[in-house]
Amino acid sequence: MGNPSETERAEALTEEEMKALEERFDSEIRFRPLPPLLGWIAGGALFILSCYHYYTAGYGIPQATTHRGLHLAFTLALIFVFFAVWHQPREPRRGLLAPLGMPLLDWVFAIAGAVSALYVPWIFNELAFRVGDPLPIDVIMGTVLIVVLLEATRRAMGWPLPVIALLFIAYAYFGQSMPGIFAHPGASWDNIVNHLYLTSQGIYGTALGVISTYVFHFVLFGVLATRIGLGQLFIDLASALAGRYSGGPAKVSVLSSAMLGSISGSSIANTVTTGSLTIPAMIRIGYPRHFAAAVEAASSTGGQITPPVMGAVAFLMIEYLGVPLTTILTAALVPAFMHFFGVLVQVHLEARRRGLRGLTKDELPVAWTVFKAGWLTTLPLFVLVAILLSGKTPYLAAFWGITACLLVLVIQNFIRHDFRTAITESIRETWEGFVVGAKYSLSVTAAAALVGVIIGVVTLTGVGFKIAYMVTSVAAGWAQSVADSLAFLPFELFSVATLTLLFTLIMTAIVCVLMGCGIPTTANYLIMIAVAAPILNLLGVEPIVAHFFVFYFGVLADITPPVALAAYAAAGIAGANAFKAGNTAFRLGMGKALVPFVFVFSPSMLLVTDSFTWNEFFLATIGAMLGIWMLSAAFSNWLFAPLRVYERLLLAIAAILFVAPDLYATLAGAIITLPVFLRQIAGRRQANASSS
């Protein structure tokens, strides 16, 4: 037999191969194999951690420092069980230097992390007398925890975040040696540890609090909702609704990723889950392999900006902004729609240009049949959303959402099995769901605690305001230079203030994307709101707008080469060139890059800002949709028929004018677009007449 085609190879991938692919590109779930006894012990610890959070979500969370310390202690100990020193899989060791099959060094780290994490809750009643004047034992314990956190995060997520944390710590210590405005008196090691370890502005701060109070519960909910079949229901419904249209599998990818993203906050997990079905189908009907991979990656990254979970960032926002969750979810609606609209328009134009078919009736499920078979799995999501919208706390909503998942799981087992088997299966699947949910939360907890170190240094040294001053000064200088070069015009094209904000946004966006290349979205967001958000606030940008801006560009890193992990995972399924898939995915996700600039200049797009007006909302939203459509056509070389070179250039210029949230710019874009539209309509009529 000859070698199988790339399509056949993609279709032949097993569930185990898909899991291996996800682990290859997502270091957060790259767990090492454990010997049986240690595996059972670690599994029991994970189950206890999930049970603790499930109980406290429904019946009350303990005092903040105690709650955060317990969560951190469990997490650090388990990270050194599940993550090896290096990522290469190795068989468990045996002997005196590896009790229960785990190296002695890992035991030391695990115990040291747990003890040092629990120390602060242990001395909590005396903490008020220790802050500012730590005892030697406090400094020792704090130093141990910082070292353990650095190593735990390196194992779970790689080097970038620990290196950044070390640089911030060095900045705090060597402040007197820093140049220019970055110089500060410096802090002794005792003072650094005091601030990072004993106060609520460091490791035990808001970031860790949100992870232990909200995020863990929603990770667990997402895992359980997927296990009862809600994710598969979304994929099947998307196939039934969108599969018949031109380029159907690509549209299924967009729609299913949008729905799956509502319960999953992981770009890579979303890519592998839906891509295992949609990518082979896209290749089969004629999409190039790299384009099929790009569609799935660009669609899947939308999960992190899709309510209600939003990759856990929604819950961080409610703490840092002090607004209800409903405000955050409302603000996210239009920008999330814009992202999926942008991807959908491009896959449609590409399908029309290539003359690609939709799926046949025999290849499609029936929507009613799908929903009738799986409607019960939607119950937990409806419960979750209903309680969130009622104004109750997010963790209470998660509690009832998880409870609904467990109820559905039990009902499903009683439908499928006899009484005894149903009980057994329900216990087994509950155990597995709780274990996996806790397991998936380990890395994000370590990252949040280490980001607390970075935020602590920012508050200790005031470096955030210094960076803000430097960036705005540079942007103002560039803006003045551009304004001077345009002084010959009889009218003011752009004000200095507008140009200053624009250049500041561009610099901030670049930093967010670069940071996101090596740091997960949640950690990236936490760092950027400490460093970049003050920059935008200095220029009068509303806090919720600034937070959404840095969040969106952090997410964009998942499809931005050279570290476009979601695109590379999709390329692995498609058998495509990874870099080419990444470049195409970035182009498909351009809505996510354009829209943040729109809602900074027209905050009404977020619906909940202080300056909201309906006129501004419709102008910004309709203009952004037209701009995305025209730019998509220019990239795809197709509107209603093939485009000429000058038409593509005109559409690109018109797109920029449409996106600019200004009535006169929108009208100018329409004027530029009109002759292209007329020529395209005539060309399509001519083509239709020729074919008939």
TrEMBL record:
Q: Name one GO cellular component term.
A: plasma membrane
Which stretches make up the TRAP C4-dicarboxylate transport system permease DctM subunit domain? Answer: 145-609
Alphabetized GO MF terms: transmembrane transporter activity
Subcellular localization, per the record? Answer: Cell inner membrane
Q: Which residues form a coiled coil?
A: none
Q: Does the keyword Transmembrane apply?
A: yes
- Keyword set for this entry? Cell inner membrane, Cell membrane, Membrane, Transmembrane, Transmembrane helix, Transport
Source organism, top-level taxon: Bacteria
Q: Which parts pass through the membrane? A: 37-55, 67-86, 107-124, 136-152, 159-182, 202-225, 291-318, 324-345, 366-389, 395-415, 447-471, 491-514, 526-553, 559-579, 591-612, 618-640, 649-678
**Does the entry feature the keyword Transmembrane, yes or no?**
yes
Bilayer topology reads: Multi-pass membrane protein
Summarizing the function annotation, the protein's role is: Part of the tripartite ATP-independent periplasmic (TRAP) transport system.
Q: What is this protein called?
A: TRAP transporter, 4TM/12TM fusion protein
